[in-house]
């Protein structure tokens, strides 16, 4: 795999690149997870650099049309190949457009009543294979009817994994589409399609060589959309350099490590960024007392506000740890079940938890808060505003992930001077440097092994370091000075897109 992108002299466009991002979600229109945030921030950063980046997602019923008025761009789009595939016209769609005078990213929306408008949620339906195949097939059909043409299409995760497949088979010789390069972007390899890929029978194994079944063919649900995205894309990228290396190994490759190893010359890793206009303690509307790196003393006031929010004693001199996360096994919270209870039992500390997830983890934190009401506060549902309150008020943030393709929480927290406690994996390894008191380096506390003893040790190091305010303040300043802006990442993506064009020309 390649992690550092070299300048491309092979091929040069006279004009600025045009890029279309295709995804299942994009903030501010619809956001379920980190993908939605990336689909807002990366196109925005590319546009700031002068590139024409646009977004294409389904039109969900929950999108606020008063806030984001849409107008018709393409009518009666017919992604189905024949009447046999769509005898009742269920797949006939429209494409709507969001465009205003403020310079925001232009966005297109695939409007379909049956597969998007009627659904209360973005994910989790029995016919998701059909829903996402529709998005993938609609993409080239939409571009055939659009006057604006991208140089590069970026397909994101398994939901748009058939886009590379379609472009390099059915539309390979299309006079309007054949010059378009296709990038497949992996945000989380674990999710590959409609089934648990760990338990695929030999009969159901998808080699990726067969033609994509019709929308109404039951075999469609057996396809591994992720595999096909990797197989057919001109280049593949993941959301951190370390994760791009990890996924070529059996431990992290989720059954696709051999394929990814075969394509390693076209596999890249670029660390996600964060929107520093949003995650900025000096301007954040969710922060009661604004501050910056020169006025860090004001952060303690936000700590008191956070303690009051969670009905904890307002104490300046105890370390206050935060968790802002999905409470899942992937995020490493199995480690906390073994280690979290001894921490408040043995140390003078506090913990606040914001997030929802798997039932046994939520039950665990409920019991922990009940047992230690003076030390543990919980809010077991996701709350965007409250997460900013935690970033501003907590001393440290806990992210013990089993694996983490990129992670945004650690970067968001560091911009507020809140120190991350992380496992050395994926994007966490690329963004957090372990504190070394000997040479006064580091931006957080890092542990390597995924076990409760290693996690417990990192927590104890943080608690002990907090007892020395001058050392803690130095780490905070280094964390706040780290550059996680999307401008830096967007420049790397421009190189990636040029690499994709080069490979597409070579074939």
Automatic annotation (TrEMBL):
Top-tier EC class: transferase
Residues noted as binding ADP-alpha-D-glucose in the record, renumbered to the chain: 31
Family statement drawn from the similarity comment of this UniProt entry: Belongs to the glycosyltransferase 1 family. Bacterial/plant glycogen synthase subfamily.
Starch synthase catalytic domain location: 18-261
GO BP term, pick one: glycogen biosynthetic process
Listed EC numbers: 2.4.1.21
Gene Ontology MF terms in the entry: alpha-1,4-glucan glucosyltransferase (ADP-glucose donor) activity; alpha-1,4-glucan glucosyltransferase (UDP-glucose donor) activity
Gene name, Swiss-Prot/TrEMBL: glgA
Known catalytic reactions: [(1->4)-alpha-D-glucosyl](n) + ADP-alpha-D-glucose = [(1->4)-alpha-D-glucosyl](n+1) + ADP + H(+)
Record flagged with keyword Glycosyltransferase: yes
Boundaries of every Glycosyl transferase family domain copy: 312-466
Highest taxon of source: Bacteria
Metabolic or biological pathway, per its Swiss-Prot or TrEMBL entry: Glycan biosynthesis; glycogen biosynthesis
Lineage, broadest ranks: Bacteria, Candidatus Wolfeibacteriota
Function per UniProt: Synthesizes alpha-1,4-glucan chains using ADP-glucose.
Source organism of this protein record: Candidatus Wolfebacteria bacterium RBG_13_41_7
Entry keyword rRNA-binding: no
Protein name (record): Glycogen synthase
Annotated InterPro entries: Glyco_trans_1, GS/SS, Starch_synth_cat_dom
Sorted UniProt keywords: Glycogen biosynthesis, Glycosyltransferase, Transferase
């Amino acid at each position: 795999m390649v992690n550092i992108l070299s300048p491309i002299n092979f091929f040069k466009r006279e004009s600025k690149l045009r890029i279309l991002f295709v995804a299942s979600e994009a903030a501010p229109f619809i956001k379920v997870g980190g993908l939605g945030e990336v689909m807002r921030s990366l196109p925005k950063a590319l546009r700031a650099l002068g590139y024409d980046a646009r977004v294409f997602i389904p039109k969900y019923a929950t999108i606020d049309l008063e806030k984001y008025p849409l107008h018709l761009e393409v009518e009666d789009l017919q992604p189905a190949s024949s009447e046999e595939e769509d005898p009742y016209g269920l797949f006939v769609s429209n494409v709507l457009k969001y465009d205003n005078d403020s310079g925001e990213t232009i966005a297109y929306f695939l409007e379909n009543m049956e597969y998007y408008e009627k659904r209360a949620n973005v994910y989790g339906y029995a016919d998701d294979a059909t829903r996402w195949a529709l998005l993938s097939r609609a993409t080239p059909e939409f571009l055939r009817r659009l006057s604006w043409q991208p140089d590069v299409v970026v397909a994101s995760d398994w939901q748009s994994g058939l886009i590379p497949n379609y472009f390099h088979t059915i539309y390979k010789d299309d006079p309007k589409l054949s010059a378009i390069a296709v990038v497949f972007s992996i945000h989380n390899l674990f999710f590959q399609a409609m089934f648990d890929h760990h338990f695929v029978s030999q009969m159901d194994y998808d080699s990726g060589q067969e033609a994509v079944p019709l929308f109404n063919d039951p075999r469609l649900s057996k396809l591994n959309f992720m595999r096909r995205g990797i197989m057919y894309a001109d280049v593949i990228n993941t959301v951190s350099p370390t994760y791009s290396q990890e996924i070529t190994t059996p431990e992290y490759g989720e059954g696709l490590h051999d394929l990814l190893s075969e394509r390693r010359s076209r596999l890249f890793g670029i660390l996600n960024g964060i929107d520093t206009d949003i995650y900025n303690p000096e301007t954040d509307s969710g922060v009661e007392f604004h501050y910056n790196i020169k006025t860090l003393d004001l952060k303690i006031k936000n700590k008191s506000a956070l303690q009051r929010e969670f009905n904890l004693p307002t104490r300046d001199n105890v370390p206050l740890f935060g968790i802002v996360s999905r409470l899942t096994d992937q995020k490493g919270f199995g480690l906390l079940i073994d280690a979290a209870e001894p921490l408040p039992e043995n140390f003078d500390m506090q913990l606040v938890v914001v997030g929802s997830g798997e039932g046994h983890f939520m039950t665990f934190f409920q019991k922990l808060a009940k047992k230690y009401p003076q030390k543990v506060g919980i809010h077991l549902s996701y709350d965007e505003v409250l997460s900013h309150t935690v970033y501003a008020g907590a001393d440290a943030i806990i992210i013990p992930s089993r694996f983490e393709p990129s992670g945004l929480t650690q970067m968001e927290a560091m911009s507020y001077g809140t120190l991350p406690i992380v496992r050395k994996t994926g994007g966490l390894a690329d963004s957090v440097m372990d504190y070394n008191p000997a040479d006064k380096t580091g931006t957080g506390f890092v542990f390597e092994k995924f076990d409760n003893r290693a996690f417990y040790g990192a927590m104890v190091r943080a608690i002990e370091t907090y007892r020395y305010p001058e050392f803690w303040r130095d780490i905070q300043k280094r964390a706040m000075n780290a550059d996680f802006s999307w401008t830096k990442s967007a420049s790397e993506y421009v190189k990636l897109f040029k690499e994709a064009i080069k490979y597409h020309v070579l074939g």
